[in-house]
């Protein structure tokens, strides 16, 4: 991992932008990936604490609602949570599946597509999708755009927040804080290639331990993600706290933000233009003269008086 | 040729209607400008009109609610005159004649022609949809508690509805420019008899009939000014 | 730990039992994961609940709390009867062949020598038969009916699969599966490590549970092996250091013991503790006891300690009771027999059982001094905290002093981890406000006392007036000065038996081999000798090179004894000195001395042909299957029910009430009346810690409180359904002694057990959350727990008691 991955020329995608990103730099930055091996996770929440420590986040002291999960969900001040799931298979074998839930850093980010504020959401050449609060307007479109329900809007400053994959640490050649804190090697970090290799090895290990459906979660629907999971039951991602089976940017978001966006804009312009041309070719409907019969006209005027 | 019919001609829109119309119109334009700014980066610079992007985002829904209130006040009295009549269908069938200014071929219409009625009905459909979907996605007040599918559905519907409303608005504005005398009607309230007779002859006849029955009340009592 | 954290990765099988290693030791648990993924090891979790360890285990078996001796005793029976033991190891390295006295016996749940009135054993008969020279008789064929092997076989023959299933409630197929997996490690080259924690110690039979684990490991040949051992995962970062330094009431530093009241004679005291070999030529290292003792006395009293005054033996306190443990002390406090209490680094109101009794006891004090970095519950025991702690301050006359201390991150020093590693650390931040190091506070107190004794006199001033205090700043002894002191230094030149100079006067001692009983050496804790030598602070070393690639980093910090990382490592080699298997090679005989990846736990130049046993601290040189007189309740572990048992009898001895519970456990009469019955309190409860919290400290820390904000109890879904409780409901959990209110975590991870023909529901209660701190307030869990401890250590029975759960 090189230290100079994040500078303005390494932004490869930018929200609400019609101009292309800088094109000249090439090949110097490798794509990164965070691997979360659910089969090795003990749910100790060290990553949650490390995330809060590094990013200076202190959520409210909540309450227990009868599960180990806490905080119960992502918030503007909690960028990752462990989701604990008791799963019983058909034979009645119990498993306690604990999944770390955070931004997946999609290759094709729904948040970025939905965001109306130029440059509020960027994707770096290393694959990290980051929120630039300086440009965030707090509209919450990213919430609607995200297929994983990740971004949260703060009530304090009405800005969107989510895991940055510690882009600041990665920039300086460090691994994300959660990775650093993980005691069991459940969370690993490296180049996309290395992590896929490692994930494949771990999948093989699990298959050798009787998890025939073990596999890698790297959903193609969003072009792959820069956070990937190794799951014991890759055929049933939904048992891991509702991990979507085939996430993709919602057709509704596409219908709103896809080609229709320029098309509708063009249509509005076209409508105005048509009016102008119509006026120019057909002319206005002139105000009719008062009654052409002079007499009647003056009669009418009199009457008005 | 004097068209100053301040004291003459026929009163087409009461002051209250005119005030409402322009309140709604100005609000609507502001909504269009702020909405478009957030819709496509092409229009992003429009946020400058509102004091920046965050202000644009924050003001848009308040303007929307404000507009809706006045729209309701505007729409209620216009309701009866906007009911579609048989001749409106005929009028629409002859839209080519309308566009080509062959007005003489058109059937006589009442106070509003089919085009105006369509604007009424489209807006009457769009505004509530925009209001409801807008409230659903309104941050920071309402969107927090909404399920994501509903947010997605609402932003999509909001965008499409707004599109329809904007197109309608463009046509509506153009019509005002195109049909001379109509802007004055909405600004000053009155039209000449000739204008009324030419564009809305049935209404004209009705006004004339009423005047004959009640010669004393000749001014504001012209047939249902709004 | 007999082994160490990193060594877990060398195991082929990891048994996590009597502890939830992933939950309580997540950082050390990395080595379990390393074992799984690098060594293809399996992980078994045996626990009342399906825990965080269970989440990553290859196999989980539920068990009724407090029945581990039954589970492991059944395993011993299974291993012996199916002949799945490591024969060569057992016959050479254990006492299996030694013959026990004829008078020894076991009947109806009791060993010979029981005195029912005193609740104690006369252990006279619990001994080997000895010959004229005082050596134990042996039968290497293991056929003698009174050899340890046959007696053990007979003892555990009652622990059948049926009985285990009946007592433990574990489904039969799961017991069998676990036993089979464990039995595989009897094969040469296969090792199992046992990871346990307070889930084994906090029972009235806790010490014997651990003994049973050790017997299993000896039978399988897993002691002294790479990836083997019996490994206690300690509950505090420095609790190992606490026991090492003798902060238990009956100990002196380095596991030397205080004299009893009847031991007024110095020679007799020493003779009793100098343990001579029970087999010819064995090392029996405790025979050097006097060297350790005299060096300690020189360290404490300096020139005042002379041979003439028996090295100040008379100044040492002598014990009237067996143990002045916390239960004993608080019991006496409750009777008004204690005036003042110094509470240092402890939160007894939260940490000791039966909170109502502890509150009453503290209320009887004249003064209480609390030395702590935090505003603990104990410091406010006198204050009314409403529903969480209801007292009337007007009725409490105890004067409370709070002295803020530094915490570990605000001072230099060594922390001893579970693996016996002394790791030096440096202060990371200055202490806040008026906080001072504990040493400084105690130093100030000492000087004040010394001044008063000197000026005003008093009864028995000698130990105070003559205490050595050689520190540069007497008001604030430095951590490095104290470290040099416990390592020890030579007072005169020290020579070995051949007259070679080992150490000059004034020099730091190289290790405890240089200690002398003639007053020429001074050493504050003999097992720590070698930690700060002439070469400097060994604990601060940070070389993590691992020349053999087996996780043996001898250059990292320093481990007692003499930087040895795996105890009994001589047993990792065959009797002929070659490793049992090449991939488990640890140390070996190279023809002239013992070499390898670790510091040999054996005389370096004694050849294998000498036939000495590898367990050099034991008088037999062998691993003790038979504990002789070292345990309170018998030489072989026997299953007894918890004092509050959900089945009300011991299925092994249904007709002998004396053998229902641990017969040797000490129970105060008033506490016996406070035990509940299963008719009134039908649910078996157990307490534990959560990853998110550390005892009662981290509820003062915001981040920890965010991660786990509120008190909860875990209830199996079957029981919850019976009681109409749904996830998130508030419930009241009551015992005979009190109640707590908490949120119900309803889970499939606790299953009802079929025990002795009835259904037993277990309830899990985390210990965290009190009425201080930033998390949600709650009543302390120790409102519920019984005031009884292990018969040997008096560690309270926090893990097995009875409660009743109700929906609020």
From TrEMBL, chain A:
Keyword Repeat: yes
UniProt cross-references to InterPro entries, sorted A to Z: 4Fe4S_Fe-S-bd, 4Fe4S_Fe_S_CS, FDH_Electron_Transfer_Unit, Formate_DH_bsu_Proteobacteria, Formate_DH_C_sf, Formate_DH_Fe-S_su, Formate_DH_TM
Alphabetical keyword list: 4Fe-4S, Cell membrane, Electron transport, Iron, Iron-sulfur, Membrane, Metal-binding, Oxidoreductase, Repeat, Transmembrane, Transport
Cofactor note: Binds 4 [4Fe-4S] clusters per subunit.
Cofactor(s), names only, from the UniProt record: [4Fe-4S] cluster
Residue ranges, annotated region (Disordered): 281-305
Domain (4Fe-4S ferredoxin-type): residue spans on this chain: 32-60, 94-126, 127-156
GO MF annotations in UniProt: formate dehydrogenase (NAD+) activity
Coiled coil residues, start to end: none
NCBIfam families referenced in this protein's UniProt entry, alphabetically: FDH-beta
Name listed for the protein in its UniProt record: Formate dehydrogenase iron-sulfur subunit
Species: Modicisalibacter luteus
Highest classification ranks of the organism: Bacteria, Pseudomonadati, Pseudomonadota, Gammaproteobacteria, Oceanospirillales
Automatic annotation (TrEMBL), chain B:
Compartments (UniProt record): Cell membrane
Single GO MF annotation: formate dehydrogenase (NAD+) activity
Keyword terms, alphabetized: Cell membrane, Electron transport, Heme, Iron, Membrane, Metal-binding, Oxidoreductase, Transmembrane, Transmembrane helix, Transport
EC number: 1.17.1.9
Gene3D superfamilies, sorted: Transmembrane di-heme cytochromes, Chain C
Cofactor or coenzyme needed: heme
Domain of life where this protein originates: Bacteria
Keyword Oxidoreductase attached: yes
Keyword Membrane attached: yes
Domain Cytochrome b561 bacterial/Ni-hydrogenase stretches: 12-189
Residue intervals passing through the bilayer: 21-46, 58-79, 118-138, 158-179
Membrane disposition: Multi-pass membrane protein
PANTHER family membership: FORMATE DEHYDROGENASE, NITRATE-INDUCIBLE, CYTOCHROME B556 FDN SUBUNIT, FORMATE DEHYDROGENASE, NITRATE-INDUCIBLE, CYTOCHROME B556(FDN) SUBUNIT
Entry's family note: Belongs to the formate dehydrogenase gamma subunit family.
NCBIfam families for the chain: formate-DH-gamm (TIGR01583)
Name of the protein in its database record: Formate dehydrogenase subunit gamma
Native species: Modicisalibacter luteus
């Amino acid at each position: 991992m090189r230290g100079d991955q994040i500078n303005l020329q390494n932004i490869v995608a930018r929200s609400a932008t019609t101009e292309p990103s800088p094109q000249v730099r090439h090949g110097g930055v490798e794509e990164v990936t965070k691997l979360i091996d659910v089969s090795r996770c003990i749910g100790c929440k060290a990553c949650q604490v490390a995330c809060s420590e590094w990013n200076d986040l202190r959520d409210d002291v909540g309450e227990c609602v009868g599960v180990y999960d806490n905080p119960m969900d992502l918030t503007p001040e909690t960028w990752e949570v462990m989701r604990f799931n008791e799963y019983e298979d058909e034979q009645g074998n119990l498993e306690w599946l604990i999944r770390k839930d955070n931004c997946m850093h999609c290759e094709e980010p729904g948040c970025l597509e939905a965001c109306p504020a130029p440059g509020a959401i960027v994707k770096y050449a290393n694959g990290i999708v980051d929120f630039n609060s300086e440009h965030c307007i707090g509209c919450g479109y990213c919430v609607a755009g995200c297929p994983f329900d990740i971004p949260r809007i703060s009530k304090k400053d009405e800005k969107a927040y989510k895991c940055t994959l510690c882009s600041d640490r990665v920039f300086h050649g460090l691994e994300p804080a959660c990775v650093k804190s993980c005691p069991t090697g459940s969370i690993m970090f490296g180049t996309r290639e290395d992590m896929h290799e490692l994930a494949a090895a771990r999948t093989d290990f699990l298959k050798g331990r009787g998890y025939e459906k073990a596999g890698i979660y790297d959903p193609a629907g969003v072009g792959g993600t820069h956070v990937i999971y190794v799951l014991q039951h890759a055929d049933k991602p939904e048992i891991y706290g509702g991990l979507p089976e085939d996430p993709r940017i919602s057709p509704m978001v596409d219908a709103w933000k896809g080609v229709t966006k320029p098309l509708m804009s063009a249509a509005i312009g076209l409508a105005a233009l048509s009016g102008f041309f119509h006026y120019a070719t057909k002319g206005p409907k002139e105000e009719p003269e008062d009654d052409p019969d002079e007499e009647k006209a003056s009669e009418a005027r009199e009457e008005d008086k | 040729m004097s068209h100053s019919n301040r004291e003459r001609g026929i009163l087409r829109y009461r002051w209250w209607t005119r005030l409402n119309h322009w309140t709604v119109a100005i609000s609507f334009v502001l909504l269009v400008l702020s909405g478009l700014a957030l819709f496509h980066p092409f229009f992003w610079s429009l946020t400058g009109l509102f004091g920046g992007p965050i202000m644009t985002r924050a003001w848009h829904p308040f303007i929307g609610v404000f507009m809706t209130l006045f729209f309701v006040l505007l729409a209620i009295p216009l309701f009866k005159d906007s009911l579609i009549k048989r001749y409106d269908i005929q009028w629409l069938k002859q839209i080519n004649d309308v566009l080509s200014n062959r007005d003489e071929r058109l059937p006589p219409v009442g106070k509003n022609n089919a085009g105006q009625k369509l604007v009424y009905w489209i807006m009457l459909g769009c505004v509530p949809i925009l209001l409801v979907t807008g409230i659903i996605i309104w941050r920071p007040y309402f969107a927090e508690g909404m399920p994501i599918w509903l947010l997605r559905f609402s932003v999509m519907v909001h965008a499409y509805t707004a599109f329809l409303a904007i197109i309608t608005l463009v046509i509506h504005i153009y019509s005002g420019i195109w049909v001379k005398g109509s802007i004055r009607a909405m600004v000053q309230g009155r039209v000449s008899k000739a204008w009324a007779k030419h564009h809305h002859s049935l209404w004209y006849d009705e006004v004339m009939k009423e005047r004959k029955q009640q010669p004393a009340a000749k001014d504001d009592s012209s047939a249902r000014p709004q | 730990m007999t082994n160490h954290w990193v060594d877990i990765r060398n195991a082929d099988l990891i048994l996590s039992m009597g502890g939830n290693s992933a939950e309580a030791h997540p950082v050390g648990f990395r080595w379990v994961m390393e074992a799984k993924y690098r060594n293809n090891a399996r992980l078994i979790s045996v626990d009342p609940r399906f825990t965080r360890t269970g989440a990553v285990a290859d196999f989980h078996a539920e068990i009724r709390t407090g029945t581990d001796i039954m589970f492991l005793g059944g395993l011993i029976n299974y291993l012996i009867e199916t002949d799945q033991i490591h024969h060569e190891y057992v016959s050479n390295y254990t006492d299996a062949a030694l013959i026990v006295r004829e008078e020894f016996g076991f009947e109806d749940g009791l060993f010979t020598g029981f005195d029912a009135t005193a609740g104690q054993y006369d252990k006279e008969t619990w001994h080997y038969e000895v010959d004229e020279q005082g050596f134990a008789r042996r039968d290497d064929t293991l056929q003698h009916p009174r050899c340890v092997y046959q007696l053990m076989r007979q003892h555990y023959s009652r622990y059948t699969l049926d009985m285990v299933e009946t007592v433990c409630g574990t489904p039969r197929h799961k017991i069998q599966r676990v036993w089979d997996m464990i039995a595989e490690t009897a094969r040469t080259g296969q090792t199992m490590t046992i990871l346990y924690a307070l889930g084994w110690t906090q029972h009235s039979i806790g010490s014997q549970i651990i003994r049973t684990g050790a017997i299993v490991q000896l039978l399988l040949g897993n002691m002294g092996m790479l990836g083997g051992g019996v490994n206690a995962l300690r509950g505090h970062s420095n609790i190992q250091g606490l026991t090492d330094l003798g902060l238990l009431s009956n100990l002196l530093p380095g596991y030397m013991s205080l004299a009893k009241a009847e031991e007024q004679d110095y020679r007799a005291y020493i003779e009793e503790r100098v343990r001579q070999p029970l087999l010819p030529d064995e090392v029996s290292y405790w025979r050097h006891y006097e060297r350790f003792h005299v060096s300690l006395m020189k360290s404490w009293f300096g020139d005042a300690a002379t041979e003439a005054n028996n090295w100040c033996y008379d100044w040492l306190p002598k014990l009237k009771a067996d143990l002045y443990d916390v239960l004993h002390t608080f019991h006496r406090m409750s009777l008004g027999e204690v005036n003042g209490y110094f509470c240092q680094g402890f939160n007894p109101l939260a940490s000791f059982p039966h909170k109502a009794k502890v509150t009453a006891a503290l209320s009887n004090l004249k003064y209480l001094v609390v030395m702590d970095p935090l505003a603990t519950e104990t410091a406010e025991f006198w204050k009314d905290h409403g529903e969480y702690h209801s007292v009337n301050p007007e009725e409490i006359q105890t004067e409370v002093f709070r002295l803020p201390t530094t915490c570990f991150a605000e001072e230099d020093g060594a922390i001893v981890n579970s693996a016996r590693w002394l790791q030096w650390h440096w202060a990371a931040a200055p202490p806040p406000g008026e906080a001072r190091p504990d040493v400084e506070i105690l130093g100030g107190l000492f000087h004040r006392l010394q001044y008063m004794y000197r000026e005003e006199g008093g009864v028995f001033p000698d130990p105070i007036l003559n205490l050595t205090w050689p520190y540069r700043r007497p008001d604030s002894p430095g951590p490095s000065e104290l470290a040099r002191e416990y390592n020890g230094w030579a007072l005169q030149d020290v020579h070995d038996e051949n007259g070679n100079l080992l150490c000059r006067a004034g020099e730091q001692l190289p290790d405890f081999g240089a200690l002398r009983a003639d007053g020429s050496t001074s050493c504050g804790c003999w097992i720590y000798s070698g930690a700060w030598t002439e070469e400097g602070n060994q604990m601060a070393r940070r070389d993590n090179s691992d020349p053999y690639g087996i996780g043996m980093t001898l250059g990292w910090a320093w481990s007692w004894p003499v930087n040895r990382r795996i105890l009994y490592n001589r047993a990792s080699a065959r009797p002929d000195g070659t490793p049992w298997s090449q991939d488990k090679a640890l140390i070996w005989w190279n023809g002239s001395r013992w070499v390898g990846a670790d510091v040999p736990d054996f005389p370096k130049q004694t050849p294998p042909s000498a036939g000495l046993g590898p367990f050099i601290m034991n008088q037999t040189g062998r691993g003790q299957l038979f504990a002789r007189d070292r345990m309170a309740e018998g030489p072989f572990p026997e299953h007894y029910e918890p004092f509050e048992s959900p089945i009300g009898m011991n299925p092994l001895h249904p007709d002998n009430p004396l053998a229902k519970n641990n017969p040797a456990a000490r129970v105060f009469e008033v506490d016996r009346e406070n035990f509940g019955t299963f008719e009134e309190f039908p649910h078996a409860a157990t307490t534990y810690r959560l990853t998110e919290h550390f005892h009662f400290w981290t509820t003062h820390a915001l981040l920890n409180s965010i991660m786990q904000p509120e008190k909860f109890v875990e209830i199996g879904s079957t029981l919850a359904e019976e009681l109409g409780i749904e996830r998130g409901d508030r419930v009241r959990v009551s015992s005979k002694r009190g109640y707590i209110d908490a949120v119900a975590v309803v889970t499939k991870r606790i299953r009802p057990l079929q025990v002795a023909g009835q259904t037993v529901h277990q309830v899990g209660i985390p210990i965290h959350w009190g009425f201080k701190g930033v998390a949600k307030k709650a009543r302390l869990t120790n409102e519920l727990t019984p005031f009884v401890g292990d018969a040997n250590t008096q560690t309270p029975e926090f893990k097995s008691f009875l409660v009743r759960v109700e929906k609020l």
